[in-house]
Design a protein that fits this description.
By secondary structure, this protein is α+β, with helices and mostly antiparallel strands. The chain is about 45% helix and about 20% strand. It contains eleven helices and ten strands. The strands form two sheets. It has a six-stranded antiparallel beta sheet. Helix 5 (about 165-175) crosses helix 6.
């Protein structure tokens, strides 16, 4: 059985946090869950045994145990090893959230998995303890709101001297709104920058170039379509997500997950929310 419940953060957090998802996976054969790259920086707090994770699937990346973990923007899936049972809470942060909550640009965490307490200190330890002590998902989401608001308040002055450039934030918003189906050069021109300058500043802030981030966004859209209750044929997934053809979808899917779309669909553990 795989179940999940989603929630929106408090209004004061919504420019920093996209969503909360509580998940409960049990009664399945042991295996590896493929955590796909997305527009968000993800933090996961285990409510049971430590998470065993690697920063890549099938590429020899070392497996590390985490009670709670934070990751930056990724250019590939992370591998989450499980024994058929996992329970936890996932928090999806925006790049602005990286600065507001962690006190650093998203680029510092790109392609990495680190213990959450290394970023939040004692507040991270308190967050994990209180989430595990709570008895309902509603109570856990309330804990997240309370402590993440504390983190934002604590770090309010950290990035005043070197804030995210508004052009970079706007480029991020436009790429996300278009789900990656927009020309980077056109976005740069609309912002009054050259493509090269936008690429350099975007990568310095996010850890990915705008072109690489656009590929992640197209893949994220395709992944959402592929995991929907009414699954589309792969040809329709490719077209709807903005790929030139199915071959380009297959190329990206293999790069991001280490598997072909068909092999992924047969073997993946899917966490649904409701």
């Amino acid at each position: 059985m795989t179940t999940g419940i989603g929630a929106r953060p408090a209004p004061a957090l919504r420019q920093y946090v996209d969503s909360y998802v509580g998940f409960d996976l049990r009664g399945l054969a042991a295996g590896v869950h493929c955590g796909p790259p997305s527009r968000a920086l993800t933090a996961v707090i285990s409510l049971s045994d430590p998470l065993e994770m690697a920063a890549g699937v099938g590429d020899g990346s070392p497996v590390t145990r985490f009670g709670s973990v934070a990751g930056g923007l990724m250019g590939r899936s992370v591998a989450i090893h499980h024994d058929g049972r996992q329970q936890g809470v996932k928090v999806a942060l925006t790049p602005l959230g990286a600065r507001a909550i962690y006190g650093m640009p998203a680029a510092v965490l790109a392609h990495q998995l680190v213990p959450l307490e290394e970023l939040l200190g004692a507040l991270g330890v308190e967050l994990a303890d209180r989430l595990r002590a709570a008895s309902t998902w509603a109570a856990r989401f309330t804990v997240l709101d309370q402590l993440l608001l504390q983190a934002v308040g604590r770090g309010a002055g950290n990035n005043r001297e070197c804030p995210m450039r508004p052009e970079v934030a706007e480029a991020w918003r436009r790429l996300v709104a278009a789900r990656g189906c927009v020309q980077v050069g056109a976005v740069a021109g609309e912002l009054g920058w050259s493509r090269r300058h936008l690429t350099e500043r975007f990568r310095a802030e996010m850890g990915l170039s705008p072109k690489a981030f656009a590929r992640v966004l197209r893949f994220e859209h395709a992944h959402d379509l592929a995991t929907a209750p009414d699954r589309l044929p792969w040809t329709e997934v490719a077209t709807t997500a903005g790929y030139a053809d199915q071959a380009h979808l297959v190329r990206d899917w293999k790069e991001f997950t280490g598997r072909t779309p068909t092999a992924w669909r047969h073997g993946e553990v899917l966490l649904t929310t409701g």
